[in-house]
């Protein structure tokens, strides 16, 4: 009887080998790094820091795009072959900020409100904000009031089309426009205008597929774009990489005389 009781007591108090293994495994697993409260708090803080950093980077990019250099998605073929549909041009917003004005031959992006369009179309504020942010990064088409064209005449210039050779004349000097779309005439619409001070006469390089100053001759403003409506100069094609070039560089207008003495 005593022997039997001793066996029973020993069985009751002695841990089984399987139980020891379970406790050992449990201790090892509960001690793994990354599963404690402190580690979880640290992971949460890391995610918050990453979110704040991403937001700060996005804000900096938007500010840079708003005030310095903005990608501009080309939505149409009006500037072919210089600019193709889908090109992203980098618009230098500082080009005309310090007393410098657009010159003949510059490719400019401008707000056409009041010259090319009467009023901006209505838009949901939230949708407009999102679209504006995407457009500022070159990820969406620009606003319907934004245009890209080439400056052909500046304040005081007399611009005429066309001379006996079918060429545009600026201040009495014929212009050989090598950047025009192959097969296009300089203009199928005749005109003879004097550009007022502070205004620009602009035209697309694809003259047969461009709604530009010529299309607004009979409207208020006569198709002239105010200099203060120019957003910036298209200095570089940034995308696609195969088309990296400066679209506005041309010597076409190098020998054009000053507009002094020009009469309308």
Outline the structure in words.
The protein is α+β, with helices and mostly antiparallel strands. The chain contains four helices and eleven strands. The chain has helices spanning 2-13, 17-30, 37-67, 125-136, and strands at 69-73, 88-92, 107-111, 146-153, 158-161, 169-170, 173-174, 191-194, 199-203, 225-226, 230-239. Strands 1-2-11-3-4-9-10 form a seven-stranded antiparallel sheet. A four-stranded antiparallel sheet has the order 7-6-5-8, with no helix packed on it. The protein is elongated, with a radius of gyration of 34 Å. 28% of the residues are buried.
What's the domain count? 2
Q: CATH superfamily assignment of the largest domain?
A: Umud Fragment, subunit A
CATH topology of the largest domain: Umud Fragment, subunit A
Kindly estimate the percentage of residues that lie in beta strands according to DSSP. Answer: 15-25%
Which stretches are low in confidence, meaning pLDDT under 50 for 5 or more residues running?
A: 1-31
Class from secondary-structure proportions: alpha+beta
- Regarding CATH, which class of the largest domain? Mainly Beta
Order of the strands making up the biggest sheet: 1-2-11-3-4-9-10
The CATH architecture category of the largest domain equals: Ribbon
SSE order: HHHEEEHEEEEEEEE
Helix proportion: 25-40%
Number of helices: 4
Global mean pLDDT: 80
Rounded Rg: 34 Å
Instruction: Give the biggest beta sheet.
Output: 7 strands, antiparallel
């Amino acid at each position: 009887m005593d022997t039997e009781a001793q066996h029973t007591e020993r069985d009751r108090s002695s841990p089984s080998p399987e139980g020891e293994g379970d406790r050992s495994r449990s201790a090892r697993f509960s001690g793994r790094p990354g599963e404690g409260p402190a580690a979880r708090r640290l992971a949460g803080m890391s995610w918050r820091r990453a979110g704040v950093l991403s937001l700060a980077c996005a804000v900096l990019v938007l500010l840079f795009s708003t005030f310095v250099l903005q990608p501009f998605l080309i939505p149409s073929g009006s500037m072919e072959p210089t600019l193709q549909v889908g090109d992203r041009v980098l618009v230098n917003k500082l080009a005309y900020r310090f007393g410098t004005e657009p010159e003949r031959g510059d490719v400019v992006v401008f707000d056409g409100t009041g010259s090319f369009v009467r009023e901006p179309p209505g838009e949901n504020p939230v949708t407009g904000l999102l679209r504006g942010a995407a457009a500022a990064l070159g990820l969406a088409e620009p606003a319907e009031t934004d245009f890209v064209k080439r400056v052909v005449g500046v304040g005081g210039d007399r611009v005429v089309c066309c001379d006996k050779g079918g060429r545009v004349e600026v201040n009495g000097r014929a212009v050989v426009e090598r950047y025009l779309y192959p097969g296009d005439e300089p203009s199928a619409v005749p005109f003879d205008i004097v550009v007022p001070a502070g205004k620009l006469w602009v035209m697309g390089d694809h003259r047969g597929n461009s709604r530009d100053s010529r299309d607004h001759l009979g409207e208020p403003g006569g198709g002239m774009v105010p200099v203060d409506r120019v957003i910036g100069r298209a200095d570089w094609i940034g995308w696609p990489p195969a088309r990296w070039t400066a679209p506005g560089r041309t010597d076409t207008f190098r020998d054009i005389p000053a507009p002094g003495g020009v009469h309308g």
